Amino acid sequence: MKLSLAATLALVAAPVLASEGEYMPPVTHDATKAECSECHMAYPAGFLPQRSWTAIMTTLDDHFGENATLDEVSRAEIEAYLVQNAADAGGRSSGLLYRVSPDETPLRISEMPWFRSEHDGEVSSRRLQKAGSMSNCAACHRGADRGIFED
Ligand code: HEC
Ligand code: HEC
Fold it and tell me: Which UniProt keywords apply (predicted)?
């Protein structure tokens, strides 16, 4: 019997990951939740490939124009968690990496091809203005912190 990833996760970690409508498992790691939700929501690891998390976690002194530096112990622990739960962790393939070439390292979820195809033409300029930026997932997806990204 072959189970989908979602079904497998639900079996392993029920009931937390089994909640209805969940699109992407939210961050469960305490340090990541605490340190990466100060300026925006803690983005789920499964939205970016391993190389992206490594790039982000090794350039925190220049993080989208902010200094998000951490002590080395927390930094390494958070990087390990994000890498272990990345879109391509364990060599798995993910539809979210659609049209991302292996030599590209996306730094933004909001600029990936899947993201653009889901959002382009779906968001009014008024709504975007209210959210401030496409990085502010929770402004439009009220369930974002729980991994729910329905409208
Ligand atoms: C001091 C504030 C600050 C902290 C702390 C911080 N970030 Fe950010 N982060 C930002 C800013 C600013 C942006 C750009 C947001 C925008 O363009 O609206 C950003 C964007 C991002 C993006 C891209 C979002 C997108 O558009 O898809 C990722 C991924 C990200 N951060 C990961 C992290 C991780 C992982 C941590 C914890 C180690 C972290 N951030 C901690 C300020 C911060
Ligand atoms: C300005 C509003 C807005 C922002 C900000 C936004 N989204 Fe969306 N998102 C939408 C709309 C509208 C749709 C299309 C309708 C729908 O499927 O809910 C959508 C669709 C999606 C989908 C597809 C849902 C499905 O069931 O197929 C995902 C996943 C998603 N967004 C994730 C994100 C993530 C992650 C972020 C932040 C990095 C984000 N969105 C930021 C408005 C937004």
Answer: Signal
